[in-house]
Amino acid sequence: MDGSVLDAEITANRTDCLGHFGIAREVAAIYRLPVKSPAPKIKESSEKVAGAARVEIESPDLCGRYTARVLRGVKVQPSPDWLRRRLEAIGQNSINNVVDVTNYVMFELGQPMHAFDLDKLSEKRMVVRRARPGEKIRTLDGLERTLTKDMCVNADASRAIGIGGVMGGSESEIGFSTTNILLESAWFDAVSVRRTSKALGLRTEASYRFERGADPEMAELASRRAAELILQIAGGELLAGVVDAYPRREPPLTIELSRKELLRVMGADVPDRDIEEILTALGFKPLRDGEGVWKCTQPSWRRDVTRGIDLIEEVARHYGYDKFPPRLSPAKGPAHRLPHAEAQDRLRNRVVALGYQEIVEIPLVDARRDELFRAVGVAPAVIGNPLAEDASVMRSNGIVSMIGALEWNLNHGQRDLRLFEIGKTYELQNGEPVETRVLTLGATGLAREKTIHEVAREFAFPDLRGDLDSLGGLAGGFSWQPGGPAWLAAGRAAQISLANAGAGQSDALGTAGQLARRIADQLKLRQEIFVAELRLEPLLGGIEAASAALRFVPLPRFPAAERDFSLVLADGVTFAQVAGAIRSLGVAELKRVEAADLFRGGQIPAGKFSLMVRVTFESAQATFTEAQLADFSSRIVAALEKQLGATLRAS
Predict the structure, then answer these.
(1) How do 125-130 and 529-535 pair as beta strands?
(2) Whole-angstrom Cα distance, residue 305 to residue 275?
(3) What is the pLDDT of residues 509-549, one digit of tens each?
């Protein structure tokens, strides 16, 4: 092959550059040089094409233009070397000289084309219509496809012979026995082609161009160019004229460009001469309409340019973005922080201080994974047209995304992780979408690395609880109740609520615990995983309420006193029950109740355990006497014996 192959990356809006001529037109605009437009020269016979073929467009909303030319006596054979080499250079297989010409013109001018064996068309008639429900067609790839009523088809008098804008049918394809052909060059609706292509799972070079919005004015020129090449390499005669069905020719759009708007958007001026040269080279035909205003005509190949801002982008792109100074646009109004912003900042800072790193996850998740963690009775928000199977629903909880993030990091060699996300969950309630903001935590691996002073220690449920209690301190504390959803491990799961929920506030805040082993095995997670999810709005409300209730308290003038109680308790008694029994005494001087140690085995009877509780007393009035402390201690022991059946452990 002579010459070089250039690989151009084209954005979705630039359908005009999906052909060599479009690229040449863009390069000519860059260098401000004239572009040489194709000018096919064809020799036509005296017989008119209108007498040899008819075209009817029954669905102009699906096909806006259809041109047809007829060639007789062509000789279908292998393509000449120059044509075959050029197509192979861009990854196209050579089929025969007629089909290769239609592909060549598509890549040259960006206009998809198709050739039909005219002798195989019933009544020599081409009808562009909607497919009949359940109608079938065998396409050129040999597969039989079932069509729907929303799909556009090319048909003859009796059957569908092609899927409009996507692929032709095998019953009318060009073969080596073909002598008479009908040459199609049409414009099909972009949305219709896209839907048909996706529904059938059939992507072609033609559908790739039509679904992005092809140039309707290119159809006739491409038809002449293809006819010229076929006459050169396949012979035959071309009937005079063209059948051109164009029911809805739209007038060109007029777009206004103003210097004032250019200055506002770009922050710098562009000389009049440059503006006019750039727009002229791009085909917009600018005309002055007063000082600093141009009226431009949208060229048929730039259907993506519809507004003045689009013209500004074209001018800036060709003038050079480097010539515009960087500038921060002035704010048009004062900025206001979102509700709960300060409380959320405090919460985020606390989580970061605990060693967690923030992540931002895409809320589209796999439906089966979401179902693993979805609460009973929650209706998921299903995506109607998902891009992928693993992104088919909006997440109904933050846990599914957190598990995915932990899994990804573990698979990439990150063993020790503490992550958090402030995001949203989604569900349907009575058919309406509902969004809920949540805070999600996830941890696995080491809680403490090995040092010369300490051994390494794995992250455990008490670590997660300690971190959450630290967050709860911002909101006045959390209340913990054992139990949780089935995807958490029994005995290492808890329901969390605000300790000081006010009137009208929901107690339930969220759940925390260790991922159940059966779920971890199902997801192939070999490490122990710990997660928590809290509803954000009530948590932030609790933080704000706790902040508003803060009052200055002077440092105590008198020393605090601590008393330790080594209790023997029955299995099933929780520390929360112990602390609740102590606080129920209403001792004003009581400051803190903490769990200091836990022990099982040894001399402790089966079915019981030893818990050492440390109680701290403070007084702003005087130093405690031994009698006062003895009274407090006896009342605490009596309350624990009565309410929980506790006994003091013998030393």
Answers:
(1) unpaired
(2) 16
(3) 999 999 999 999 999 999 999 999 999 999 999 999 998 88
